[in-house]
Amino acid sequence: MSDPDPTARAAENQFLKEGVGLYLDALTALVEFRRKVYAKCKSVLEQRLEAYSEALGPEVRLDSQRIAIWTDEGDSFNGTGTNYGIRLVSGLSAGVWGDHRFGLGWEKQKDGTLWFGTTVALWVNLEIAYRQLLNKFTSLGPKEPFKLFDGRRWLWFYTTLAEADMAELETKLDETLVGWIDLWKQSRGANAIFAGLK
Predict the structure, then answer these.
(1) Which of 36, 49, 124, 176 is the most exposed place for a label (fewest CB within 10 A)?
(2) 142 preceded by a cis bond (ω within 30 of 0)
(3) How far apart are CA 107 and CA 133, in angstroms?
(4) Residues 158, 183: contact at Cβ < 8 Å?
(5) Taking the CA of residue 151 as centre, how many other CA atoms within 13 Å lie in the half-sphere pointing to its CB?
(6) Domain membership flag for residue 127
(7) What span, in angstroms and rounded, lies between the C-alpha atoms of 17 and 121?
(8) Is 125 helix (H, G, I), strand (E, B) or coil?
(9) pTM of the prediction?
(10) How many Å apart are CA 104 and CA 170, to the nearest integer?
(11) What residue numbers bound the domain in which 169 lies?
(12) What is the pLDDT of residues 11-42, one digit of tens each?
């Protein structure tokens, strides 16, 4: 068995050495950042919860007591992208359930640059229902600067932010959620989109 590359081993040792000194401060900063982001996401969603419920339709009641932290990080995290914010699950129509996500997203692009922005995502449990939703929202088209992304039963609604936008994060989050709600209003709610599904 050959010895590890001395250069790589030296780099790893230096990384671990620096990590010992930085870990606690970095973790403290991350926890505080997440706390502030979560609080702003929760505040915006709670303020718009009634309007969101009304836009989804009379059968959909979004419950603020079911709001939870959303993060897709974990042991599988590979450093290419992540999301953080809030989530809640609700019925959308007969037999159709949705997992609502709202917050911030980061993703490394192929050219090495980092994309960052506000996101709303909805996971739909039935493939045919998801396709009907995707087709309807695509035909309506989101207003600029917002865009849609087909994530295979995850429908994403998002816009790009700059670091300077963090000074107005709550406003940017609110604008994103209002844009998403507007698409539901134009669609006349979940029952209209998922008509005929059981």
Answers:
(1) 36
(2) no
(3) 25
(4) no
(5) 15
(6) yes
(7) 39
(8) coil
(9) 0.89
(10) 11
(11) 6-193
(12) 888 888 887 888 999 999 999 999 999 999 99
* Number of domains present in the structure of the chain: 1
> In whole angstroms, what is the distance from residue 184 CA to residue 84 CA?
23
Q: What is the tens place of the pLDDT at every residue in 100-117?
A: 999 999 999 999 999 999
- CA-based torsion, 42, 48, 49, 52: positive or negative: negative
10-24, 92-106, 122-136: segment of lowest average pLDDT: 10-24
pLDDT band of residue 3 (cuts 50, 70, 90) is low
**CA-to-CA distance for 56 and 181, rounded, in angstroms?**
8
**Phi, psi torsion values for 156, nearest 5 degrees:** -105, 140
Q: Is residue 198 part of a domain?
A: no
- CA gap 130, 138 in Å, rounded: 12
Sign of the four-CA dihedral 92, 151, 101, 118: negative
Residue whose pair of structure tokens reads 């917050």 in the numeric block: 103
